[in-house]
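To illustrate the input format used throughout this study, we show a single complete record. The first block contains the structure-token representation of the backbone; no residue identities are included at this stage. The design step must infer an amino acid for every position from geometry alone.
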């Protein structure tokens, strides 16, 4: 099942997995539904997709890094899973003492084609076991601008 990001316009580009034909559709009517759709292409191919009504698109990544909890002096290794204009999601390699609203320093290096070391202070928004969702402290974080500028999608 393909995950399709819905921009603020509520329009998405659907691509048939068989013939690669594309169609742009308005999905406003699906905003408050379960967001899973079945589509049928003009070539006859039937396929499923999930609509993702996020405020910010997320770039899936697989980056190794480390964290340091400010004020608790705890640090550990993480796998950065995705980055967006709003924050970063990561998984700790070991159990942790991270709490909601903690501020942590994340350090990691972007991979190909640009190897750039990133250090960012983020606020913890949610935690599910070892997976952690964060939000940038500085809403004008330069990470997303850097990713977009260097076309790292």
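Output of the design step:
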């Amino acid at each position: 099942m393909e995950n399709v990001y819905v921009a603020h316009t509520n329009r998405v580009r659907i691509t048939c997995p068989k013939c690669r034909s594309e169609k742009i559709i308005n999905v406003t009517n699906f905003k408050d539904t379960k967001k899973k759709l079945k589509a049928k292409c003009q070539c006859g191919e039937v396929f499923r997709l999930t609509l993702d009504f996020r405020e910010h698109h997320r770039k899936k990544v697989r980056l190794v890094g480390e964290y340091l909890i400010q004020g608790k002096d705890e640090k550990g290794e993480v796998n950065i899973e995705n980055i967006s204009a709003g924050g970063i999601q990561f998984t700790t390699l070991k159990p942790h003492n991270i709490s909601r609203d903690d501020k942590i320093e994340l350090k990691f290096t972007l991979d190909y084609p640009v190897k750039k070391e990133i250090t960012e202070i983020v606020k913890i928004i949610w935690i599910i076991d070892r997976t952690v969702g964060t939000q940038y402290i500085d809403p004008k974080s330069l990470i997303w601008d850097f990713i977009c500028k260097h076309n790292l999608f």
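Structural context for interpreting the output: The first strand starts at residue 2 and ends at 5. The radius of gyration is 18 Å.
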